[in-house]
């Protein structure tokens, strides 16, 4: 755990005078942060295992499948270790509202480090929570209630137990559901499904844990951002936008070198070799960069494999590898189907169209204002970088010339062109 996160927990400990409640708050926050850290490390954990063991998601060889299964079991256990302990702790301390059964998650001992005093209370029975019990507005109301006044110590402790009971119940059920689904997928050796479930759990459980941790901090007067607790954190949208843009830029360069030089029979051997080196250089630079580290382990390993084939193979084999790389990068455009990007793009396109419609209505009245609205639309379109090669190409052209005039005919042509690219 980072020193800054420890200092935030210490601020909470300083506020709570009751020893038992201080210990509970501190324990819960430490477990939350450890769970978020382990979930955040999932990509790197998978990559390390896959890279070292040369694993395959689709290899049907019995021995290889057994090794892959054992690896997934280990990754699953490592990723869920802290959240299992958190859920078990909440069950055992009797905080979960309407909890009538013990957690099905692993409850074996685990050392969370020095100065980590676990304080268990006797659990009280009641009925099992459901995910539908908690709506987003309930979380908002919790924060509003806290912000309305500066509560005294007893009020803070009451809010603490109430909110932890609600959020903890939902989180525990989510964790148990993901835990079971991942275990079943691994047992059935459906490794693609297991990987998807792990990816989904990282986002959903990471969000849930942060909601609970930030609520606890907020109750005791400490405002936190997710990056305060996990410095490497970037939200899913940020990661997806960066990945889409970087993959698009890489794909454009590789495709250009492949189509215009490497596959052109009229080019000299020296020109082809130079183009192959350029592809290898830019691919290696991408693989070594931070964006690539956010990709799924099999995809990272596949790109690293292309680097080796292009670098070390004879010219003919390297040229074929460049062609295969261009096709593989094209297949990675499936990133556009991520729900977070679909929703983002939908909203951005609505905003662009509003700007374009307003500009169109002002062409005859105020070309200068219309021009500004078109510029706003082009600026918003930059948020769609990587969504389609044709859009990226036109954006590059518009950026290079930077010659958007007040002429109503030119503006109308730009409006029509941009509107067509959004369809």
Q: Can you describe this structure?
A:
The chain is mainly α and 423 residues long. It has 3 domains: 3-229, no CATH class; 236-336, Four Helix Bundle (Hemerythrin (Met), subunit A) (Up-down Bundle), CATH 1.20.120; 339-421. 73% of the residues lie in helices and 0% in strands. The chain has 17 helices and no strands. The longest helix has 35 residues, at 153-187. The two termini are 47 Å apart. Mean pLDDT is 85; it is low at 99-104 and 106-132.
How many β-strand stretches?
0
Helix content: over 70%
Low-confidence stretches: 99-104, 106-132
Distance between the termini: 47 Å
Rg over CA atoms: 27 Å
Largest sheet: none
Descriptive tags:
single chain; 423 residues; mainly alpha; Four Helix Bundle (Hemerythrin (Met), subunit A); 3 domains; 73% helix
How is the secondary structure organized here?
Elements: H1 3-15, H2 19-40, H3 42-53, H4 62-92, H5 136-148, H6 153-187, H7 191-219, H8 226-229, H9 236-262, H10 269-287, H11 290-293, H12 297-312, H13 315-331, H14 339-362, H15 367-381, H16 389-401, H17 408-421
Helix pairs in contact: 1-2, 2-4, 2-7, 3-4, 3-12, 4-6, 5-7, 6-7, 9-10, 9-13, 10-12, 10-13, 12-13, 14-15, 14-17, 15-17
């Amino acid at each position: 755990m980072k020193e800054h996160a420890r200092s935030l927990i210490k601020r909470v400990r300083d506020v709570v005078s009751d020893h038992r409640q201080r210990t509970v708050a501190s324990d819960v926050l430490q477990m939350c942060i450890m769970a978020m850290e382990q979930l955040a490390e999932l990509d790197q954990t998978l990559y390390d295992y896959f890279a070292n063991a040369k694993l395959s998601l689709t290899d049907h060889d019995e021995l290889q499948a057994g090794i892959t299964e054992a690896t997934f079991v280990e990754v699953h256990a490592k990723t869920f270790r802290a959240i299992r302990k958190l859920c078990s702790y909440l069950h055992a301390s009797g905080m979960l509202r309407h909890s009538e059964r013990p957690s099905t998650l692993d409850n074996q001992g685990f050392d969370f480090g020095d100065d980590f005093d676990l304080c268990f209370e006797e659990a009280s029975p009641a009925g099992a929570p459901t995910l539908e019990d908690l709506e987003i507005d309930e979380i908002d109301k919790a924060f509003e209630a806290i912000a309305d006044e500066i509560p005294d110590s007893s009020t803070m402790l009451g809010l603490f137990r109430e909110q932890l009971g609600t959020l903890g119940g939902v989180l525990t059920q989510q964790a148990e559901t993901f835990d079971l689904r991942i275990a079943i997928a691994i047992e059935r050796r459906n490794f693609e499904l297991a990987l998807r479930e792990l990816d989904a759990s990282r986002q959903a459980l990471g969000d849930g844990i942060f909601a609970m941790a930030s609520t606890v901090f907020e109750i005791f007067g400490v405002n936190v951002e997710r990056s305060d607790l996990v410095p490497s954190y970037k939200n899913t949208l940020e990661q997806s936008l960066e990945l889409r843009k970087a993959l698009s830029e890489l794909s454009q360069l590789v495709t250009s070198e492949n189509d215009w030089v490497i596959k052109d029979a009229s080019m000299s051997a020296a020109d082809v070799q130079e183009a192959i080196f350029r592809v290898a250089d830019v691919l290696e630079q991408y693989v070594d960069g931070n964006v690539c580290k956010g990709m799924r382990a099999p995809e990272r390993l596949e790109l690293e494999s292309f680097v080796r084939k292009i670098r070390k193979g004879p010219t003919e084999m390297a040229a074929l590898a460049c062609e295969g790389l261009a096709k593989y990068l094209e297949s990675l455009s499936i990133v556009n189907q991520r729900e977070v990007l679909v929703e983002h793009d939908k909203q951005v396109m609505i905003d662009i169209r509003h700007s374009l419609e307003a500009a169109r209505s002002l062409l005859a009245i105020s070309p200068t204002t219309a021009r500004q609205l078109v510029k706003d639309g082009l600026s918003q379109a930059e948020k769609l970088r990587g969504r389609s090669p044709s859009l990226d190409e036109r954006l590059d052209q518009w950026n290079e010339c930077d010659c958007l005039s007040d002429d109503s005919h030119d503006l109308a042509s730009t409006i029509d062109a941009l509107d067509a690219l959004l369809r």
